[in-house]
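Homework-ish question, so no full write-ups if that breaks the rules, but can someone show me the predicted structure for this set?
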Amino acid sequence: MTGRSGGLRVLIGAESLLDAEPAFRLIDRLSARDIAELGGLLLQAAELATTPRLARQRVVTPAGVLAPLPPASSASVWLASDANRFRTRLAAVAGARQWRVDVEQRDLDHIADFTRGWDVFILGCRLTHRLPGRVVLVSGEPVPEGETARFAREIARSAGADLTVLSNDDRLPARLTRLPMAAVILDCATAPLPEPSRLRAIVDAARCPVIVMQGPSG
Amino acid sequence: MTALPPEKLRPRCDPSSLPFRTTDELPDHSDLIGQDRALEAIRLSAEVTHRDFNLFVLGPSGTGRHAAIEEVLKAQSGQRPLPVDWVYVNNFDAPHKPRALSLPPGHAPRLRAAMQDLVNDLARDLPAVFESDEYQTQRRAIDQEYAEKQEGAMSDFADAARAEGVALLRTPMGFMLTALKDGEVLKTEDFGKLPEKEQDEIEEKIARLQEDLADVLRQAPRLERAHAKRIEQLNAETAARTVSSRIEEFDPTLRAIKAVSDYVLEVEQDIIAHADLFLQAVAQGGDGGFPGPLRKFHEDPAFDRYVVNVMVSHSGKDGKGAPVETEHTPTLDRLVGRIEHVSQMGSLVTNFTMIKPGALHRANGGFLMLEARALLSEPFAWDALKQCLKTRSINITSLAERLSMMSTTSLEPDPIPLDLRIVLIGDRMLHALLVMLDPDFGDLFKIQADFEESVPRGDRETDALYARLIGAYSRREGLPAITAAGVARIIDEAARRAEDNTRLSLRLGQIGDLVKEAAHYAKARGAARIEAEDIDHACEAQDRRAGRIKDRMQEAIGRGTVLIDTQGAQIGQINGLSVIGLGNYSFGRPSRITARVRMGAGKLVDIEREVELGGPLHSKGVMILSGYLTSRYALDVPFSLHASLVFEQSYGGIDGDSASSAELYALLSALSEAPLEQGLAVTGSVNQAGEVQAIGGVNEKIEGFFETCRARGLTGTQGVLIPKANVEHLMLNDDVVAAAREGKFRVIPVSTIDEGISLLTGIDAGTRDGTGKFPKGSINARVEARLRGFAETRRDFLRRKTDGGDAE
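A: Not a homework solution, just the prediction itself:
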């Protein structure tokens, strides 16, 4: 990791503001001293524009309401609007700290391109409820130590949640999928970043922000 | 008539008649003398337990009213039980209506302390309980239970969707379902290549799964509500165990009181419902102050809702001792209490802890003394007091509320039952005005204690009692002892101030001031005791200090600026005497009164009245003269006099009828053309029968004329004619008495106008003989002849006028 002496450089990546919001709330709870710079990465994958539009197809809002799909022609408008709101929200969270936002028309497959140079990468995911959940630290060590463990404890403390440690194995997505969680922390300080498909599987299973702690090489 | 002997001019108290040498030998005697009537009234008011037997104490200041009332009330209060304590506590259901609790005497501070302990203990215990592993475990179990339900539902849905080849996409608006093909999201062009039937099946699946997802998501708020209720229940149960356990330790003596027991139950429920207050206070209050067990959490405003606001508390031996309170500044707020406000964010806010007690709270169950004038001067204070007495309760209503000027939130505290005796102290004028103008006064103040201003000086016993009173006063004030001669001199002065040599003044304040001043002179000359000469010195000094105007007036007479004759004789001119009052000091001075007569239509002109300088009593006196003249002389002819009367060189108002005899003498002199002796001055009023009646200020009047005569040289023929009824009011100063003893000045009592006119003219007044005629040459014969002459002249005049008219 880099820049630890002056605080972490944290990148928040999400496919929409709705997904980024839980990540912003996590950052809000952390001490200002812990974060030196904040980055935003809005991944606007092409698949939304390329999926078929069906007559009975609807958008299911987080409140459980079935809403009509926006016309494909206006997709670029509301994506741009979402990007603006994402930028505004990030600026508010960053406060006096340095911040920047990138909007990429790519998906998680290119994650390694975006996260280079950042200490922490938080992949946002919307929560489907407001019930409390735990913070899960995914680590290769049975008793994690070091910076990632300290950061995980800080996240758990700020969220008022328990910290649970799980090992990073093939069964991880299956274990995560039924666990109520506030955040998942992947300790990648000593290991390479997971494959994009693996990362997507973890995010889909967790249904909460996934925090990737990177090593010094980033 | 003969002049009074010197001993009649100043009956002295004989020091040898006093049974002591100095007041040191006298026992303490602080009881009032001569105030039996007033004291009976005070005792009755203090002892009667029925409502509205409030007391109005009337009489002049300095008569020992306050001390006497306090003494009687304190004696009575010592036998009465201690009144109950009163506190205000929060009304948890309606905070704007604080509840009043009554407690046995002395228990209010105990309840306050018990509540403070309760808050402090729970502020330590509750956070500890909520931080305990036991609670946290239970809480997490509940969290997990509900979160797993939702996560399980979402997980099941995701599995089902995947099994049916449907992907869950996250869009900025929400979730969107779309078809999968070989684990990848099916694109539009690929979807179009599918058979129509398959397309329909995919659409059907997506439509169905959308509904399922909507159900799962709609379930989340329900689960959250259920979760919150479970947590709330857990919190309540956890708090209840801790609070109930602590409440069980609450002071059993206090809990035995029904009102307290009920209140504590409410507190228990409120603390359980607001346990978060205790957790927040601890979380926020980490900085400063004593840590942990020593921290006074009850001082935190967050816990104001559990404060016990003590309005009044009483303690005393054997449960006896009703309060005796005095409020010197009886404003509305200080009387009935007030509700304070504090400014928060620009608005005024209050709560029950800001209710402050008033004098009525402090005196409830006992006695409250108030100065009537001060009370009536304060806006709405009298009305508020009456309202409290009528309703028998203390209602705290601010002046702003009474004037409807208050727009901010305020409180409606429970009225506190009122049972006390009000003692109003005032003068007779105020009492009379209240009786006349306030219909409630008589109902609420059923007893009056009227303090005497003087006491009869019938025997030696009264002098001795008075001496003991003075002795006790000097001891109480730390003054030197007074010798018997000194006390005798004080008694003489008390008689003079009572304006009656048969009575003694009960204005003990004035007498006390005299003794204090005498003590100063005694000390200045190095004496250990106060002697008669010190009292004399003090009297003279007081007289001198106040006598500047008197001296200037005498000087004006001496220099001839004000014309007063003290020798010779003049027709229709006489020296009248008047008194000028300046607060506590008054002095007499002579005034020239002249009368002029002629034929007229029966009119007596009072020049003072014509120019509106004469008051109604003076006018009345002059009209009486007219009645005297018309009813006594020349009854068989019309009253054909035109006369005018005036106080020469008088430029201020004149009132009173004490100069009416002098005016009559001047008229008789003018009518009879008999000169009046100018060495004699006259005072006294007269009635229509010619009897001379008593007047006030006789001593000052005599002394005033004496000063004038002495300044010009006493001749031995000078003196003052006073009403005989005033002889027992004489307490003249030593100078007048000495002059009288030496035959240089006379004080002559007269009882009728005939006696007076004879003395003033040296001519017999004359009484009617058997034929109804006055002796020839007598004053009355000359007056009658003159009046008859006026009548005849008038008749001739009218006849001439009539004749002349006929001729025309």
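Now go work out the reasoning yourself. Hint: The domain at 8-213 of chain A is CATH 3.40.50 (Rossmann fold).
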